[in-house]
Specification:
single chain; 196 residues; alpha+beta; 3-stranded antiparallel β-sheet; 11 strands
Length: 196
């Protein structure tokens, strides 16, 4: 549990740090447009439910090129250090996609090929396989996840008002909910590598 706790804290720190460097989506404008008669060009962006192993068609182990085939080009891409506490940690590739009200961040291994490890979102646009999205209440989360929902006590005990809560499917496949002021503020999924 200590490794999982440290790993979740590191992934959240990495996601928040990388997310803070992102761009702010442009303000929405209203203007009349003519209906398009041409075929849609390329993928429409991230879609599908957040699952234990990815988002929609993007699953753990897939390469960034494969995922770009589903979601299109990201708005941001960066290579970040792995665990700052591990001198042997490998760098990670991070792709960002703008969504309504936030972003979706995908984290990959690096090396000869990259492979999807985990996802992070602060947007209410995507919901989990349990039907929960950013902005939902802790009570809604508890009803949807039931007894499978477990607290992730990171220095302080998780409460329905504040803290991390997760549902595990298998080793390396979790959905973690960051609850702030009684509402889901962020959702992480997939593998959070150990950092100790």
């Amino acid at each position: 549990m200590r490794i999982r706790t440290s790993a979740t804290a590191l992934l959240l720190l990495l996601a928040l740090t990388v997310g803070a460097c992102g761009s702010t989506p442009p303000a929405a404008t209203t203007q009349a447009t003519e209906p398009s008669t041409t075929a849609t060009e390329g993928p429409a962006g991230p879609s599908g439910p957040i699952d234990f192993d990815g988002v929609g068609p993007a699953k753990q182990g897939m390469t960034s090129d494969e995922i770009e085939g589903y979601f299109g080009k990201p708005v941001g891409q960066d290579v970040v250090p792995g665990c700052p506490l591990d001198a042997n940690a490998k760098k990670q590739l991070v792709l960002k996609y703008d969504l309504s009200g936030g972003q979706l961040t995908l984290t990959f291994t690096t090396g000869d090929t990259d492979a999807l490890l985990s996802t992070f979102t602060d947007s209410p646009e995507l919901e989990t396989v349990q039907g929960i999205k950013v902005g939902d209440s802790y009570d809604d989360l508890k009803k949807a996840a039931g007894d499978e929902l477990k607290p992730e006590n990171l220095g302080a005990e998780a409460t329905p008002e504040q803290g991390f809560w997760y549902v595990a499917k298998a080793e390396g496949q979790w959905i973690t909910y960051d609850v702030d002021k009684g509402k889901v503020a962020r959702i992480l999924s997939g593998n959070t590598p150990a950092c100790e």
